[in-house]
Design brief:
Length: about 270
């Protein structure tokens, strides 16, 4: 005996046709509700369905995440926010720092901590040797080279390079120049005769404490307002004015305990 659920008895409809129509309707209904467990070609099983979430416009700020720039944290600005130097770039990038060895070494250490290889061209290797030995936890990430003897570094996106040129007041033209993923940082202790040329071609310039006469010259070269270049002769140790063509910022470099143990306290002169 067969039972036809949902079809009035005596309707005259064949039971097979009635079942077919019911099956078709059930299939369409399942497709609309998302409860079909049969795999869909190319998509697999339909996942669970939940109500959509909404957030009032005035509460959107609560979802914001603090995302900063990518690069080396060189210190903090006047509002105690991290100041970041984006040194590793897919284009040639030249940096000139008129300042002390201490700041240049902190920059080198932190660049190495981001995964960059650091090549130091210097005429005072003993001042850099402890840093080169301590950096990288035994990995050769900081190498020292005599002036004019830096070999090709083979920089790439996966292995960026920072070349630090600590070559005195009149650094010769380097054999290794800036290139994609290879930045060059030139350290000058004072405003030397070659400084104007270096400042004009640099993408980033850092200036620490200098004499009032040097401050006036730097202000003229960099187009600084008077209150900024006059402040250059009064800066504390560890403070640097970093300048790009479109921005300027005073930054205080604060050493970590490990950096202080290796390099000592912040100082302008060595």
């Amino acid at each position: 005996m067969s039972h036809s659920f949902g079809t009035p008895s005596g309707s005259g409809a064949p039971s097979g046709a009635s079942s077919s129509r019911r099956g078709s309707r059930s299939s369409r209904a399942a497709g609309r509700t998302g409860r079909d467990t049969k795999p869909r070609f190319g998509f697999g099983l339909v996942g669970p369905r939940r109500d959509r979430h909404s957030v009032p416009v005035d509460q959107l700020d609560a979802l914001a995440l603090p995302v900063g720039d990518d690069g080396v944290v060189i210190g903090v600005d006047a509002e105690s926010r991290p100041a970041v130097l984006g040194i590793n770039r897919p284009v040639p990038y030249d940096v000139t720092l008129i300042g002390g060895l201490w700041t240049a070494q902190v920059l080198a250490l932190r660049a190495a901590a981001t995964g960059a290889r650091v090549a130091v061209e210097t005429g005072r290797a003993p001042a850099w040797t402890p840093l080169a030995q301590a950096a990288g936890g035994g990995q050769p990430c900081v190498s020292l080279h005599d002036v004019g003897r830096v070999p090709p570094q083979g920089a790439s996106a996966g292995s960026p390079v920072v070349v630090v040129r600590d070559c005195g007041m009149r650094p010769p033209r380097g054999r290794v120049v800036s290139a994609p993923w290879q930045s060059v940082v030139t350290l000058l202790p004072y405003l030397s005769p070659v400084a104007p040329r270096l400042l004009e071609k640099s993408s980033l310039v850092g200036v620490q404490r200098v004499s009032p006469d040097e401050a006036v010259q730097i202000g003229r070269i960099m187009g600084l307002p008077r209150h900024e270049y006059e402040a250059l002769s009064t800066l504390a140790d560890g403070v640097t004015l970093w300048c790009t063509p479109g921005d300027r910022q005073f930054v205080m470099t604060q050493a970590t305990d490990a950096e202080t143990g290796l390099l000592g306290g912040a100082r302008r002169m060595d």
